[in-house]
Design brief:
Helix content of chain A: under 10%
Strand content of chain A: over 45%
Order of helices and strands of chain A: EEEEEEEEEEE
Shape of chain B: globular
Number of strands of chain B: 11
Order of helices and strands of chain B: EEEEEEEEEEE
Oligomer: heterodimer
Distance between the termini of chain B: 37 Å
Radius of gyration of chain A: 13 Å
Largest sheet of chain B: 7 strands, mixed
C-alpha cells in the first residue's frame, strides 16, 4: 500500500524567505505526482503536476522536483508571501492512473 | 468555464438518516472521483467513475455508501443510515479522463452527523 509522508507537518516563516516542503512515498511505481494547496474551508487548488518521466515543473515562484527512484518530491517556494499561507498537500497517482494517495499536508504560515 | 461544483456546501443530519451529496464535474471531463477528508486526517479515496462506470469500489468504507453517475456528468454519493464517524468533508474531483491530466477539485460538502 502506497504511503505518502510530508515533512514538516507545520512551518512558520517570515515573509520573503525561500522554503522547501518535502514529500516522500514508499512505492516508486507512480504515474504522476501532484501538489495542491488547501485554504481553510475551501477545496483543493492544483499547483503543479509532474509526470513520472519528468524531473521538475515550475510555475511562477513555485518549483516542484521529483526523484522517483528515491521516492521523493520537494516543493520550493521562492520569496514567500503572507498569501502563501495554506496547507500544502502532496499526492501520488499509481500506475493505473486514477486514485490519488495523499499525504497529510504541511501547514504553512508566512508572517508579515 | 465553470469548475467542479458540489452541493450542498454544508449538511447537518441526525444519526441514522440517509444523505445524498451531489457533484457536477467540469464539462467534458469523463473521469470523476470522490474523496473523504476526516478531521485531522489525510484525504481518503472512495470511488472513481470513468464515464458512467465505476470500475473500482474498493475504497467505499462500508455497504452504507454508494455512488452513481449519469450522463457522464452529475454524480451522487449516498450514505445510508449515517453514523457519527461519517462526519467529514466529502470532496469531488474530475479529470479529462482516467489518469490523464490534473484532477480538479470542488469545494467539498461538509457533513456533520449529530
Amino acid at each position: 500500500k502506497q504511503e505518502v509522508t510530508q515533512i514538516p507537518a507545520a512551518l512558520s516563516v517570515p515573509e520573503g524567505e525561500n522554503l522547501v516542503l518535502n514529500c516522500s512515498f514508499t512505492d516508486s511505481a507512480i504515474y504522476n505526482l501532484q501538489w495542491f494547496r488547501q485554504d481553510p474551508g475551501k477545496g483543493l487548488t492544483s499547483l503543479l503536476l509532474i509526470q513520472s518521466s519528468q524531473r521538475e515543473q515550475t510555475s511562477g515562484r513555485l518549483n516542484a522536483s521529483l526523484d522517483k527512484s528515491s521516492g521523493r518530491s520537494t516543493l520550493y517556494i521562492a520569496a514567500s508571501q503572507p498569501g502563501d499561507s495554506a496547507t500544502y498537500l502532496c499526492a501520488v497517482s499509481p500506475n493505473s492512473g486514477y486514485a490519488l494517495n495523499f499525504g497529510k499536508g504541511t501547514s504553512l504560515l508566512v508572517t508579515p | 468555464g465553470a469548475g467542479v461544483s458540489q452541493s450542498p456546501s454544508n449538511k447537518v443530519t441526525e444519526k441514522g438518516k440517509d444523505v445524498e451529496l451531489r457533484c457536477d464535474p467540469i464539462s467534458g471531463h469523463t473521469a470523476l472521483y470522490w474523496y473523504r477528508q476526516r478531521l485531522g486526517q489525510g484525504l481518503e479515496f472512495l470511488i472513481y467513475f470513468q464515464g458512467n462506470s465505476a470500475p473500482d469500489k474498493s475504497g467505499l468504507p462500508s455497504d452504507r455508501f454508494s455512488a452513481e453517475r449519469t450522463g457522464e456528468s452529475v454524480s451522487t454519493l449516498t450514505i445510508q443510515r449515517t453514523q457519527q464517524e461519517d462526519s467529514a468533508v466529502y470532496l469531488c474531483a474530475s479529470s479529462l479522463r482516467q489518469g490523464v491530466g490534473e484532477q480538479y477539485f470542488g469545494p467539498g460538502t461538509r457533513l456533520t452527523v449529530t
